[in-house]
Amino acid sequence: MRALMFEGPGRLHWQEIPDARLQDDRDVLVRPLAVARCDLDPAIALGLYPMPAPFVMGHEMVGEVVACGYRAGWQPGDRVIVPFQISCGACAMCRRGCSNACEAVPPGSAFGLGPHGGIDFGGALTDLVRVPWADHLLLPLPPGLDPVLGCGIPDNIADGYRCVAGPLRQWPGAPVLVIGGLAPSVGLYAVCAALALGAARVVYVDIDAARVSLAHAMGAEAHLVPLADIGDFTTGERFAITVDAHVLDGGRTLALKSTAPCGICTSVSGGATASAALPLRDMYLKGITYEVGRVHARALAPEVLELVVSGVLDPSRVAPRIVSFDEAADAMLAPDPKIVFVP
Ligand SMILES: [Zn+2]
Ligand SMILES: [Zn+2]
User: For position 260, which CATH number holds?
Assistant: First the structure.
């Protein structure tokens, strides 16, 4: 089968690799129908987020089941949403909803992000993907839900959602500040989710004019700020809920200084370097909760899916550009906030 292989910074090529095959009676084989470009993918492709090569790229996917182990609980022809992090559903961490830290696999195990702890689960930009623990891991794609929208639900859509959903439960109706940037679709999904979940207002700050326009069209008050100025920018107000989807230091600075006393700031990345300075004294004096960590893809997916199906949350507002698999290598670095690859 063919697969889009990451071979190092700036080097993406389609290659022939051995066919995926069932290895356990709870496995299924899935044929990808739609694969969203994750916000992390361009950073990997460029080498900005160093990852050991080679591996097959792509990890946000909807697919069709083509073969099943006898205990997998699916049938050929079923359409499924595939959460990107591998989780077993049975270990202590999975049972408490920490599906990004499943104890049955090495830390970081996921599709399309390279071999972690020696295990390579393959990627989605290919013809067939083996899904372990499929009876637990997969979700049925609801009838009528376009695979192009469904594929991002457990990853970037859920990531934007969780930045505001929990905080809005603590601060119902509070205005929300989102700093966009290197997690371009996550920031916009956070805008979308905040407005859907009843935030009084959403203020959006970004360095990219197209994303600022999109956030404005979605209903946010949007500010375009040059990259060099973002850390010094101020909206003139403080927010109980802030989201840092900017990733670089300036965005985190803006998010934290804009967070109101006893507010919650959620960061969707660990920053661009291995360690970053935090204004801990100011955060202590204001009593800020700083939330940082990877999304729990499998645990959160049903909640997000239900909101999408019921029409409360409409991720199509972040209109993805649809690109064929054949064009995926070039489109991986395109400036669009969201791209979905189809075979
Ligand atoms: Zn991702
Ligand atoms: Zn587990």
Answer: 3.40.50.720
Cα of 110 from ligand 2 centre, angstroms: 13
How much distance in Å is there from the Cα of 98 to the middle of ligand 2? 8
Instruction: Place 247 in a pLDDT band, splitting at 50, 70 and 90.
Output: very high
Domain encompassing residue 145: 2-151+313-342
Q: Give the Å distance between the CA of 90 and the centre of ligand 2.
A: 5
Q: How many domains does the chain have?
A: 2
pLDDT at 116: 80
Does residue 117 carry a pLDDT above 80? no
- Spell out the residues 6+ positions from residue 273 whose beta carbon is closer than 8 angstroms to its own: none
pLDDT of residue 50: 87
Q: Is 323 helix (H, G, I), strand (E, B) or coil?
A: strand
Distance of CA 278 to the CA centre of its chain: 24
- How far apart (Å, rounded) are the C-alpha atoms in residues 5 and 12? 6
- Output the pLDDT for position 288: 97
- 193 and 141 assigned to the same domain: no
Ligand minimally distant from the alpha carbon of residue 92? 2
153 Cα: distance to centroid of ligand 2 (angstroms): 20
The model carries a pTM of 0.97
